[in-house]
Amino acid sequence: MKYRLKIGEASAEVAVTPSDEKDNAVFVIGGNPYSIRFALASENCYHLTLDGKTTRVYVARGQEGKFISVKGCPYLVQDADKPLFKRTHPKNMDETSGEVTPPMPAVVVRILIQHGDRVKRGQGLVVVTAMKMETTLVAPWDGTVKAINTAEGAKVAPGDILVEVDEEGQDHE
Asked: What's the fold here for domain 2-79?
């Protein structure tokens, strides 16, 4: 997958090629290849290994893009090709589990539902592809599709809220 990333005022083209090894990929930045091994340490923390050196990287999603902190230095990283979708923030913590997000960086292949559709728990909502494998993201419960925050062909990452589903019989106001 190729990305055009904007970091501050600078832009860079990044090509990502998955490796045959799990949790390993080759990133080509400015024509220079980097083999990077990554592992999710916690919800917003990754362990990255580059040239035998491991570091923790923290990632937080914001309205403007992703905030990435490496060795205490924060960077705002934006996908220059991805349109910005309005994200509605949950009113309380109980709502967050109705948000459907991808498990890894991926590309949206198909959207199987429409806004306002009634869905059943386990019903397919969005199909994404990553590392030559398709994954169907499913409804967390019976409910109604409250929002679709993506489009076919969009590049998405963990933490991106692709679909929001209001639980049947629950009042989130």
From this structure: Glycoprotein, Type 4 Pilin (3.30.700)
